[in-house]
Amino acid sequence: MLRSALPALAVLLSAAAAAQVPTPEAFLGYALGERFTPHHRVVDYVEAVGDASPLVTVERYGETPEGRPLLLAVVAESPAVAEAARQSSVAAARGEGEPTKAVVWLSYNVHGDEAVSTEAAMQTLYDLTQDPARLADVVVVLDPCLNPDGRDRYVSGYRQRRGALPNADPDAREHDQPWPGGRFNHYLFDLNRDWAWGTQPETRARLAAYNRWLPAVHVDFHEQGVESPYYFAPAAEPFHPRITPWQRELQTRIGRANAEVFDREGWLYFTKEEFDLFYPAYGDTWPTFNGAIGMTYEQGGSGRAGLAIRTAEGDTLTLRDRIDHHVATGLTTVATTARDAAEVRRQFAAYFQAAPAGAQTYVAQGDPGRLGALAALLDLQGIAYGWATDQTVSGVRYGGGLDRPAEAGRVAVQAGALVVAADQPKGRLAAVLFEPEAVLGDSVTYDATAWALPYVYGVEGVAATGPVATGGPAPPAATVPSGRPYAYVAGWSSPADAQLLARLLREGVGVRIVPEPFEAGGRTFGRGALVVTRAGNARLGDRFDAVVRAAAQATGRPLTALASGFATSGPDLGSNRVGFVRRPSVAVLADTPVSPTALGEVWHWFDAVVEYPAALLTADDVSAATLVDVDVLVMPDGSYGSWLSSDRADMLRSWIRAGGRLIAMERAVSSIARLDGFDAAVRDAPEADTTAAAALRPYAERERRGASESVPGAVYRVALDPTHPLAFGYPDWTYILKRRVAPVDFLTDGWNVGVVRSGVPAAGFAGVQARERLEDSLVFGVEDVGRGEVVYLADSPLFRGFWADGQLLFANAVFGMEAW
Ligand SMILES: [Zn+2]
Fold it and tell me: How much distance in Å is there from the Cα of 302 to the middle of ligand 1?
């Protein structure tokens, strides 16, 4: 019905191209919409279409953590035409000509329980093969499922919960998902917050594939709540200021074309609301900063809708309806792009020809290990960089411990600083990721409002008005000494140092941690340096040197060999002041009431970043018996109110008193702070404003007023006490991303290791009232309780897995403090 109703998409069957391509129904044995298709059958179908159709080339571009393949189906008049379009798109980004075809990339099911998307992808792929005329001006790259692990979690769960017939009653059990739901990937990351950071294997594989293509149009297919009908572009404000007029224009044109189809069919939809284009890690913004028109399409339904669900208005929304809508917008997007292809190709080329406005060069300077970590992200993103020579430039300093970006002026750039020119194919993306602060046109946004990389990596940024000379030294490659030294020393200043420590501990190596700066063997080391002495590791016997060197090699960390334990300044290696740490047994609370993504940050860090065993414990089963052998218990963010019964609070308190270390994160801090017997206290909410002006507020301003009380995600400078073991490896500052206003008072009987002094963020938006409340509040603290302690981390140092500068602090909390 739909397809025959679209004149622009009139079906012109080409017998040669279409003959043998199986329909989804013929291949799967059921019509799309009758059930959800497990991912392996999706793979089978897409590969069968690739085998059958001369228009389709299928490639496996990666694999999920659970071993499912990631797929791309390229649909073009021929593989040679596709390859020419691909090469010419990449060349256009280098400023060489225009793409030969407009490349449209369709991404489905990044949120696993928004499961209509992949069903629609199969239908869309089939339809494209049936009409080669559609492909005269475009090449379509179709990724049927960005999150196979999450999708299968949802699909297999739904199949278990449903009966023989679907039940449309919204209260029926099949419309609920058990924790953690299917939205997230294996590590419980939201893959639609990961495009800019690439913390997850799915994202990293996809970025590599995307950068080989650089499409001109990108659509990310989603689902929203059951009661919201359908959303497509144009997007809501705020638009990031680096989005070009053409990008606004084309998404409006495509939106109007979608609207025409929906009008004709009588389907409800909305535009310009809710889904903004600001935070750069989404499947619409990230492609936008890479030259594409990036759009999100949202069908009503998501993980609640199942095969059929009754809406509040009394209609029944079926999976078949949802498929039809996503197929319609997908094909309309292809058709509209094809109609305007000449302009799309020209504008795509033009996007890369002008250097972005603002700073000409971005510089990051500081610890070489941190710069190395930053460089790895730039490599992943395809952003070119160099290393500076010593020089002075004009520009703005930010990060590096400043409360706010400095006034423009002359800035010293040190040899070895990382240099990124804005005038390069990835220049706009680089500018978005580096600039001190994006101008937010509207304060009501969906997500974080600041993310500049110098804050993320704990280095100083410089936004320079002119070029910065490169040719200086790159961070030195790690060298591993030979022989049989008295001890090995490694620095403690960058996230990768935590990988080395975790690996040494996992291998059973005992590690000493030096609490003060010291000088030995002609070199100086900062607080928290790791010392591995032969003494104390006798059980490793002859393997000692090989094990230590292998750990350094695997983690790329430089080791220094010392022939003597004598320090020319600071404590000798055998001093009682030098602590000794051995492998702690770590557990992490999981399942209800823990926030899935918060658990994901912690789990992924242990499992995939530092590769250290941590047992995930089902929170409801935690008892004194399960904690007997646990040294460190992590409570990620969660809603612990009813979980923390008085019995359980007593149990935790006794475990801590007996020597346990509890690491409470985000809302877990507030929950612990409400218990008796702990020093932390949540600051009371301010008194209600009872003035007449407040009472007579207009209803229409309710959203704005909400904004004045909120921090959607802003960067704050944290003043650190670098003499405390929790802050070893840091200067007297770091930055965190603050996402909620739940200020904790300073501890009166503990260590206030990291605090926010000014309520004004270093970057990003914070409402006026929020600023007042956050002034002088605790971010990181330690309270001794009996023989153990509580570590308070009021904001997550592991935010979304990309906040690199927090990782060392988290490692201190888990491993480093063992020694004291
Ligand atoms: Zn979604």
Answer: 8
Residues 22 and 146 in one domain: yes
**If you average pLDDT over residues 188-199, what whole number do you get?**
98
In angstroms, rounded to a whole number, what is the distance separating the alpha carbons of residues 152 and 39? 6
Domain count, the chain: 4
From 332, 353, 374, the end of a domain falls on 353
Q: Is residue 485 part of a domain?
A: no
CA of 773 to the centre of ligand 1 (A): 33
Please give the distance, rounded to the nearest whole angstrom, from the Cα atom of residue 276 to the centre of ligand 1.
13
Shared domain check, 376 and 514:
no
Measure 222 CA to ligand 1 centroid, in angstroms: 4
The CATH number linked to 608 is: 3.40.50.880
Q: Give me the pLDDT at residue 7, please.
A: 44
Q: How remote is the CA of residue 192 from the centroid of ligand 1, in Å?
A: 7
Does any domain span residue 481?
no
- CATH number for the domain that contains residue 20: 3.40.630.10
Range of the domain at 7: 3-353
Structure tokens at 397: 């300093």
Cis geometry, peptide bond prior to residue 761 (ω within 30 degrees of 0): no
Express each pLDDT in 407-447 by its tens digit.
999 999 999 999 999 999 999 999 999 999 876 655 555 57
Q: Which residue has the higher pLDDT, 18 or 471?
A: 471
Q: Residue 562's Cα: distance from chain center in Å?
A: 40
Query: Cα(82) to centroid of ligand 1, in Å?
Result: 29
Where residue 4 falls among pLDDT bands split at 50, 70, 90? Answer: very low
Same domain as 449, residue 301: no
Q: Which tokens go with 13?
A: 């069957």
- Residue 692 — left, alpha, or beta (φ > 0 → left; ψ -120 to 50 → alpha)? alpha
Give residue 8's pLDDT. 42
Same domain, 336 and 373: no
CA of 348 to the centre of ligand 1 (A): 27
Give the side-chain half-sphere CA count within 13 A for 89: 25
193 CA → ligand 1 middle, Å: 10
Over the chain, what is the mean pLDDT? Answer: 93
614: Cα separation from own chain's centroid = 21
Alpha carbon of 144 to ligand 1 centroid (Å): 14
Same domain (yes/no): 524, 643: no
Q: What is the CA radius of gyration of the chain?
A: 28
Helix (H) or strand (E) holding 495: helix 495-506
